[in-house]
Amino acid sequence: MPIAWNLMPKATKNLLVVNCLVFLAQYLFGMRGVDLTDLFGLHFVLASGFKVWQPVTYMFLHGNLTHLFFNMFALWMFGVVIERTLGLKRFLIFYFVCGIGAAFCQELWQLVQYSANGLAGYTTVRFDGGEVMQMADFLNQWTTVGASGACYGILLAFGVLYPNEVIMLIFPPIPMKAKYFVFIYAALELLFAFTANDNIAHFAHIGGMLFGWGLLVYWRRQQRRPKYGNYVRYKEVSERETFFSRLKHWLRPNDTLEVRRNSKAEQANRQADDLRQQMERQQRVDEILDKIKLSGYDSLTPEEKDELFRNSSD
Questions:
Q1: Topology of the domain comprising 7-125+135-224
Q2: pLDDT tens digits, 90-116
Q3: Which is nearest to 47 in space by CA: 59, 35, 60, 38?
Q4: Taking the CB of residue 57, how many other CB atoms lie within 10 A of it?
């Protein structure tokens, strides 16, 4: 077994295996005349073939070998780094949130098309060749499969967490920073979503990136939130100004003035401490990034990887 496979993080490795096994099952069942897409592919929400489990199961189905290869290549290329950065649990949450978010955006776009074209008022569809199809059968053909939405979310995470890492494009072979690479991909998907007439679920790709970005923002805000969240500790409640303390300050204004001065001095000291800590964190991030440039991402210790993720947006 190749060393790279042994060193691959658990979640990424298992996702690669499961996707390949499901594709093999698609092929074997297809030889017997059973199309797994009918049951597990993501159908249009108003179609008779839609089932509640499809926003999850569609991620493990693929249309052909090329579709599978490019999605698994992206999962291997970027998923390894993102899983080592987020950890196994958060990586799996991120993967499925992006995939389900992609399904939501694709369904939303199909609802817009359904309403804009007034399909609710028709019972049949006539094609250019004269073929007539029942509307129910036509809507069941609006089916989405593939891990592309989740993979685009992982690509977005790489661009957010490692914006200055250089990626070598294959066609054409041009080195490019990750943040520009992700921006170009997102812009192209948005352009193709409104202009291209193909069978690619561009809005699913955009949805995966949007939900991935939103989850990263949420996690970062959670890390910055005080330990006690929105609750107030008993000590803080006991130190609040009461009626008798306000009366005392009114009777002894000099004491009140002194308290305000001390409060301002404490606030200035806290701001100075916050600024010093922020500069120390930034210096630490710069040192870790320099280490990545010299020795690669795998040279980082688990503590350094965790620190880089926690401070990546500072």
A1: Rhomboid-like fold (1.20.1540)
A2: 999 999 999 999 999 999 999 998 888
A3: 38
A4: 17
